[in-house]
Amino acid sequence: QVQLVESGPGLVKPSQTLSLTCTVSGTTIRTSGYHWTWIRQSPGKEVEWIGTIRTTGTDYIKLSVRSRTSISLDTRKNQFNLNLPSVAPEDTAKYFCAGGIGPWTPSHLRGQGTQVTVAS
């Protein structure tokens, strides 16, 4: 049974870097065909796709955050990571990692999510 668990700081100050980790169990992140994704949701807003990385290492990042966002695989730890520098209060959200075969859809398995608040 595949499971995903997010981890990271709950509070980040404006202009700092947000780093989140998703630990995957029940499969290896190198399994062919899998796409590993980060999404977030703020209160009262729809789920926002941030970016996806494939097992090949190819990544797809939302255009509006592409210049400051990176997603990476850590195959030794069976994890994938999100790095979001220069955060602002509008980056406050619940962040989820997700995984599944093919490009991300809302039906992909996701973790429980981790709340991130950007505030000084």
Structural write-up:
The protein has 120 residues and is mainly beta. The protein contains no helices and eleven strands. The chain has strands at residues 3-7, 11-12, 18-25, 34-41, 48-54, 59-61, 70-74, 79-84, 93-101, 109-110, 114-118. Strand 4 and strand 5 form a beta hairpin. The mean pLDDT is 94.
Output the radius of gyration.
13 Å
Structural class: mainly beta
Q: Let me know the largest β-sheet.
A: 7 strands, mixed
Task: Count the DSSP helices.
Answer: 0
Strand elements, count: 11
Percentage of β-strand residues: over 45%
Short descriptors:
four-stranded antiparallel beta sheet, 0% helix, globular, seven-stranded mixed beta sheet, mainly beta, 120 residues
What's the helix and strand layout?
Blueprint: E1 3-7, E2 11-12, E3 18-25, E4 34-41, E5 48-54, E6 59-61, E7 70-74, E8 79-84, E9 93-101, E10 109-110, E11 114-118
Parallel strand pairs: 2-11
Antiparallel strand pairs: 1-3, 3-8, 4-5, 4-9, 5-6, 7-8, 9-10, 9-11
Give a short summary of the structure.
The protein has 120 residues and is mainly β.
